[in-house]
Each structure stands twice: as C-alpha cells, then as structure tokens.
Amino acid sequence: AKDEGRGIFKYFSDDLTIAARRRLNLEALLRRALANQELKLYYQPQVDIASGRIIGAEALLRWQHEVEGFIPPDQFIPVAEETGLIAEIGEWVLREACRQGHAWIAAGLPVLKLAVNLSSHQFRHGDICATLKTVLQDTGFPAQRLELELTESALMEREAEAVLILQKMRDLGVGLAIDDFGTGYSSLAYLKRFPLDVLKIDKAFITDIPQNEDDKEIAAAIIAMAHILRLKVLAEGVETEEQIAFLQRTGCDLYQGYYMSPALPATDFAALVQRTA
Ligand code: C2E
Ligand code: CA
Ligand code: CA
Ligand code: CA
C-alpha cells in the first residue's frame, strides 16, 4: 500500500510539473505578447431579436503568436488571472475597445454599444472606477455606449463592496451585464441587489434548443424572471434559425452567436454593420 501511495504521488507530481512548466512558459509568452502587441480585439455582433439589427458588439481578446499560432482566450486568461497580468491586459482591452469605438463614431458607423469583459481580478484589485474614468476621458468614448460584463463569481468574491462598486460604475454612466448566467450561483434573488442592465444566458442553455425540453424551460424561466427584475436578456451561442424563433417567442431581447457572425477583426465587423444597416 505504501508503494502504491508513492506511485500515485509520483504520478501526480510529474503531472503537476508539466502543468507548472506549461504555465510558466505561457506566462513568459504572455508578457512578451503584451509588449509586442500580439493581442488583438475581435468584435462579435449583438443583435436585437425583434428587428434583426446589430446594436453593438462584445470585444473578445485574440492572441496570435507568430510561432505558437492562435492561442484561445480560455487558455491564457486563467494564467493572466493567476499571475495578475490580467490587470495590464484588462486595461489594454478597455482602452483599445474605447479607442476603436470612438473611431467608429467619428467614421459615422451606426454602432450603439460596446461590451467589454471584466475579470474578477480587475474587480477585486485596484481601483477599477478610476481606471474607467481615465480611459473614458482619454479616448472620448461616451460612457453610455460602454457595457461591462461581470461574472457571478466576481460579484460573490467582493459581495459586501460589490453593490457599491457597481453603483459607482453606474454613476459614471456605463451599463452593466451579468455574464454566463446559469453557470455559477445563479440566484435571481441575489441578482436583485445589484444595479444591472443586462443578463446574458450562458450558451450551455442555448446549444441544445430546440431538442432539449429542459433547456427550453430553463431559458424561458430565466427570461421571464429577468424581465420581472427589469433586466434585458441576451442569449449567447445562438447558431440556428430555430433558436432565434424560440427566443423570439419567449420574449428574449438580444442575441449573440454564429448565426449572425463569430467575433471579427474590427474592419470586418464595421463592414458587416454597414452591409446590414
Ligand atoms: P464569453 O465572455 O462567454 O464569450 C463568449 C464566447 O463564446 C467567445 O469565445 C465566443 O467566440 C464564443 N461564441 C460566440 N458565439 C458562439 C456560438 O454561436 N457558438 C459557440 N459554440 N461559441 C460562440 P472566446 O472568444 O473564445 O472567449 C472565451 C472566453 O474568454 C470568454 O467567454 C471570456 O470569458 C474570456 N475572454 C475573452 N476576451 C476577454 C477579455 O478581454 N477579458 C476577459 N477578462 N476575458 C475575456
Ligand atoms: Ca462575455
Ligand atoms: Ca458569456
Ligand atoms: Ca462563456
């Protein structure tokens, strides 16, 4: 039994070493990426379900490394979170989105809103409101057109202050969305305490619509309850006509998904908006 235990330990420690090495490697790469401007923002349209019109976009990070190729955000954001590098990356994302948004306004592009993801680290550390204020001032992007996406876990981690921080953001004029709803604590009663504008239903509940009856009922219930709380509802990961039809029937306000478009480079997004305006 003793040998067996050591064997297991050895197995796990090898495994951890590989993971740790990969992590260190990724961290070093990521630091260079930030310095070398290998990070890009792509824009995925947000669509009004009733009119079919694009009303804005979510900015999504892309990392194109010249040797390693494309590295998906699900791989590098967790590393950036753990190392604290997300503070710099997150501020860059905010600034870049606002810079681009301002350029689009100046060019007369009819885009109303840009949504930016805020990591829980950004929410926990530093003064996010001060950063926001500076970035909005520097770029000239109107606060009313900016929406910040927060996860339930970010709000839970700073529960006591969360309401106050959100209120301060609201006072600046920015909109607030709860992201990936349904994957975390998912208590609507709890959400009631936060000054939010939009609830984003996680794509896990949308993917199997219309085949999955449970998912349909869950999505319909979330939409109905969110409306009681006077939140707009956005469905993520919408890929089919049937899903649109279902969401229209259930009164969902907005959607994002491959049905309209994946996230696109800025110039391609602007072209799509112009084509569909
Ligand atoms: P998220 O915020 O939930 O973003 C939505 C993800 O779903 C994106 O993946 C998007 O490309 C993908 N998606 C959109 N439509 C569809 C669809 O119809 N079908 C399917 N199967 N997928 C769809 P992406 O871009 O790989 O981003 C993954 C996650 O990385 C994001 O999830 C977000 O949590 C994080 N992330 C991305 N950019 C940033 C950022 O700038 N800051 C922070 N903190 N996190 C970011
Ligand atoms: Ca998001
Ligand atoms: Ca999401
Ligand atoms: Ca997600």
UniProtKB/TrEMBL annotation:
Q: Where is the signal peptide?
A: none
Where the record annotates domain EAL, the positions are 23-277
The domain of life is Bacteria
Q: What is this protein called?
A: cyclic-guanylate-specific phosphodiesterase
Organism in which the protein naturally occurs: Methylomonas lenta
| Taxonomic placement | Bacteria, Pseudomonadati, Pseudomonadota, Gammaproteobacteria, Methylococcales
Give the residues of the full protein shown.
Answer: 458 to 734 of 734
